[in-house]
């Protein structure tokens, strides 16, 4: 047999790759399909194998929780994306100025990414808590009229999650932008300098347009971060005050594990998956188109 | 009038001194080429002239005004980069007008200037395209267009042809030279290619290890190199350099190459001082000064001398044949006519153009005579 003659050195890499690949396929693809199927069944606490059609979806779409969550995720995603991109780009441009100690700053800015979402949520929860956080400190310093109580404000608590999320992810955006800025031909900056463009115009007209594919990548990665947000929000607001900051992932959790309605929960999970697909599929198509275009130009 | 004057310019990167006291004076309308091997400091010097880097000490004057602390945009210069540095997201037209846009030149004047330059460089059909859609030669033209549209006091070229293929490079070389003849601008051009330097320059500055070795017109650089570095750097194949001993003779000094029966006696330049007699020197002779015996170098019969030397190897290139021969035991190159075939190993006869022999001091490596 041919395979028997292969040396262990040849077999080992195949084993190392194929076992995890098969396991991943089983767990990711397998259980995704299982969830999709469960969403069409009348399952409650345990899976039941009947068929109810779109009943679970209709029911989910008519709950107040889901509707608030759907509205929240739109506001949250837009704000999170805008703030994180802005901060990431700002940090990257500042770091690109041939700074002394750049490595130190880069590490500091990237560090939040290494912190668990729960820790971020808890710590920002303390900071933003009017009773023990920033408001208390400033009031203690003598500004007794100072109010910073967004966390307990129904209309503003969502922005607290945006704040914490941006703190955590902007370092990551910075790393991507910085890599992009570093790939820009240094001669372009020199040419712009001789052409008489100031720093602002050089970035706005020459450098940033050159790295536009990085913007797309950052948007897509951040957007799927945002759609999946769960632990950060649970640790920071727990969906409150009331259900004002509930997010789709929390609705899924609520139906599946709190209320014991597997069918409804699965339907919510599939809806969340569709949101991700709506982001990722166009990006995949775009990437494919770009590669084709590059191949044609080369 | 000096368009550019550089006085005692030094540049240090930490403990490393990359420019060690550069002095240059470039007249208006000159095409000056800075040439030297990689790492000789020529690009750093160009960047300092442009204001993109700061000198550690010394002065740069453009049009009789010291510009040490003046921003690149206010130096009235234009630059063409090795990578062309075209703005990839702008069209060719936007690339050319960007500088004017930054300087708030009215739209009508911008269009007028673009039309003029596009016609000059024949890039009119390309104006609406993006740099990614252009060939190397077209990008090169656009990069020059961006520089020309400004009509500055000084043009700076940083190895603009090194990314082109050999054929295109020769074409662009001629075009740049013609362009210079037509518009008469002052150009400082950096290259590592000595052929580019020889063909285009009105003045050449040969640089090595952070200092200018020689600054002169191409003929002087080629025929009277100031030192051994210049002699060996310029010319392809480079100048032959062999050790010789200087002796007195009835018709003036004689350089003896080799010893005993192999020794070859060549007339040395008469200008060599008497104190060099009976001392070792380095004799330099260009390969084209060693040719087939029927070659006619000059009306003066004393200019040509015929010698015999063993042939080691021949390399026919088509246009000529390079011959490796032993001159008094030392290996040298000669260039004979293409149809001359010399059998390898046999002793051949060669005509030597003795007017162009150079002598160098073996310790300082400087030109003696």
Summary tags:
heterodimer, A: 298 residues, mainly alpha, MetI-like fold, 72% helix, 0% strand, globular, B: 369 residues, alpha+beta, Rossmann fold, OB fold (Dihydrolipoamide Acetyltransferase, E2P), six-stranded mixed beta sheet, five-stranded antiparallel beta sheet, 8 helices, 23% helix, 34% strand, elongated
How would you describe the overall organization of this protein?
The complex is a heterodimer of chains A (298) and B (369). With 298 residues, chain A is an all-alpha fold. Chain A is 72% helix and 0% strand. Chain A contains 13 helices and no strands. Chain A has helices at 8-38, 55-61, 64-95, 102-110, 117-128, 134-140, 157-182, 186-195, 199-210, 212-228, 231-236, 248-258, 262-297. In chain A, helix 5 (117-128) packs across helix 7 (157-182), helix 7 packs antiparallel against helix 10 and helix 12 packs antiparallel against helix 13. The two termini of chain A are 44 Å apart. The mean pLDDT of chain A is 87. Chain B folds into 2 domains: 2-233, Rossmann fold; 240-360, Nucleic acid-binding proteins (OB fold (Dihydrolipoamide Acetyltransferase, E2P), Beta Barrel). Chain B has 8 helices and 20 strands. In chain B, the strands form 4 sheets. A 6-stranded mixed β-sheet of chain B has the order 6-7-8-3-9-10, sandwiched between helices. A 5-stranded antiparallel β-sheet of chain B has the order 13-12-11-14-20. Chain B has a 5-stranded antiparallel β-sheet with strand order 15-19-16-17-18, with no helix packed on it. In chain B, helix 2 (92-102) packs across helix 3, helix 2 (92-102) packs parallel to helix 4 (136-148) and helix 3 crosses helix 4 (136-148). The radius of gyration of chain B is 25 Å and the shape is elongated. The interface between A and B is medium-sized, with 19 and 25 residues.
């Amino acid at each position: 047999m041919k395979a028997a003659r292969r040396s262990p050195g040849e077999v080992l890499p195949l084993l190392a790759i194929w076992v995890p690949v098969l396991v991943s396929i089983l767990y990711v693809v397998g259980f995704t399909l299982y969830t999709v199927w469960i969403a069409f069944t009348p399952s409650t606490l345990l899976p039941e194998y009947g068929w109810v059609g779109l009943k679970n979806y209709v029911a989910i779409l008519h709950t107040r929780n889901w509707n608030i969550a759907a509205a929240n995720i739109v506001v949250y995603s837009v704000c999170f994306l805008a703030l994180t991109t802005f901060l990431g780009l700002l940090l990257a441009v500042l770091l690109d100025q041939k700074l002394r100690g750049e490595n130190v700053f880069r590490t500091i800015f990237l560090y939040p990414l290494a912190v668990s979402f729960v820790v971020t949520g808890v710590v920002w929860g303390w900071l933003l808590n009017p009773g023990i956080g920033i408001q208390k400190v400033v009031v203690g310093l003598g500004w007794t009229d100072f109010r910073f109580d967004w966390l307990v404000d129904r209309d503003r608590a969502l922005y607290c999650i945006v704040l914490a999320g941006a703190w955590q992810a902007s370092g990551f955006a910075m790393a991507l932008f910085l890599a992009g800025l570093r790939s820009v031909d240094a001669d372009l900056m020199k040419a712009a300098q001789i052409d008489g463009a100031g720093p602002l115009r050089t970035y706005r007209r020459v450098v940033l347009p050159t790295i536009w594919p990085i913007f797309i990548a950052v948007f897509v990665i951040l957007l799927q971060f945002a759609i999946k947000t769960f632990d950060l929000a649970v640790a920071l607001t727990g969906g409150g005050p009331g259900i004002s900051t509930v997010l789709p992932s929390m609705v899924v959790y609520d139906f599946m594990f709190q209320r014991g309605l597997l069918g409804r929960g699965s339907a919510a999970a599939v809806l969340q998956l569709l949101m991700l697909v709506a982001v990722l599929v166009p990006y995949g198509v775009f990437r494919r188109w770009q590669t084709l275009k590059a191949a044609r130009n080369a | 009038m000096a368009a550019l004057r550089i006085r005692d310019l030094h540049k240090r990167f930490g403990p490393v001194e990359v420019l060690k006291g550069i002095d240059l004076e470039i007249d208006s309308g000159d095409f000056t080429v800075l040439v030297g091997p990689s790492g000789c400091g020529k690009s750093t010097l160009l960047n300092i002239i442009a204001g993109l880097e700061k000198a550690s000490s010394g002065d740069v004057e453009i049009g009789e005004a010291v510009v040490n602390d003046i921003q690149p945009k206010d130096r009235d210069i234009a630059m063409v980069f090795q990578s062309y540095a075209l703005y990839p997201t702008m069209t060719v037209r936007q690339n050319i007008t960007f500088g004017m846009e930054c300087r708030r030149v009215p739209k009508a004047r911008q269009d007028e200037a673009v039309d003029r330059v596009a016609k000059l460089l024949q890039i009119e059909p390309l104006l609406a395209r993006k740099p990614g859609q252009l060939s190397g030669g077209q990008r090169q033209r656009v990069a020059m267009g961006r520089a020309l549209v400004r009509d500055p006091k000084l043009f700076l070229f940083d190895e603009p042809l090194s990314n082109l293929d050999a054929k295109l490079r020769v074409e662009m070389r001629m075009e740049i030279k013609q362009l210079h003849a037509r518009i008469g601008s002052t150009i400082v051009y950096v290259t590592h290619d000595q052929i580019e330097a020889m063909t285009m320059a009105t003045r050449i500055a040969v640089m090595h290890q952070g200092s200018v070795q020689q600054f002169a017109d191409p003929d002087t650089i080629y025929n009277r190199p100031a030192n051994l570095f210049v002699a060996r750097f310029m010319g392809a194949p480079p100048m032959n350099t062999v050790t010789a001993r200087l002796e007195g003779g009835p018709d003036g000094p004689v350089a003896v190459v080799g010893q005993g029966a192999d020794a070859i006696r060549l007339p040395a330049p008469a200008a060599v001082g008497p104190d060099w007699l009976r001392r070792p020197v380095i004799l330099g002779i260009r390969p084209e000064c060693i040719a087939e015996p029927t070659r006619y170098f000059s009306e003066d019969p004393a200019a040509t001398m015929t010698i015999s030397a063993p042939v080691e190897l021949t390399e026919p290139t088509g246009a000529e044949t390079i011959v490796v021969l032993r001159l008094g035991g030392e290996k040298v190159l000669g260039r004979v006519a293409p149809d001359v075939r010399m059998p390898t190993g046999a002793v051949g006869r060669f005509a030597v153009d003795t007017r162009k022999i150079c002598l160098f001091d073996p310790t300082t490596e400087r030109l003696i005579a």
